[in-house]
Amino acid sequence: MEKNNVLPKIPSQREISSFRTKLLRWFNKNERKYPWRDTSDPFRILIAEMMLRRTRADQVKHVYEQLFLEYPDIESLTDAEDEKIEKILYPLGLKWRTQAFSLVAKEIKVKYGSRVPETRDKLRKLPGVGEYVAGAVLSIGYGKKEWMVDSNIVRVFRRYFGVGTSREGRRDKHVIEMAKLYVNCNDPRKANLAILDFSALICASRNPVCKECPIKMECRC
Fold first, then answer.
1. Whole-structure pTM value
2. CATH topology of domain 13-31+146-212
């Protein structure tokens, strides 16, 4: 979608701000409740986001609670046996997560004194952490104006603003630029959670609930 490094026309900051305001108004009444949203601990948020990759949030809830009941902090998770972690994570599938959790805990402990890094570059170098997880930790855990883009956010942008994207979309430069404009606000944590919940509850990939959509009048879908 991007030829000769020229970005497709994207909405203005004003248009995106208006869109965000409407989502936040909806979110105030419809926020989903999960245990990883009740903490400001960046490490717990990091682990939750790693669990949520390709996995529904409702599946993750019990596993998340069980893991931190058994291993409440970085130090205890670092010392945990892989077999015990694997047993807890078994309901989620994807065995790679067992080793990834152990490795990421050890690296944060050794390299960063048990404190989760506060920059995207450092986070992306951690095992199992990509752009999306890094953005989630920074915006939700640290309250920074850091962008997040996954297929759900791409879908909302594409439908509402009518922007073209590549098939995957999440690496498109203009989509990332839109996400940066979207999160440029006083409460980036809340803004990012709002668009995630909206994409799950209203603007779903299949059978979107358009009749209940609070922004349907402006939607270009």
1. 0.92
2. Endonuclease Iii, domain 2 (1.10.1670)
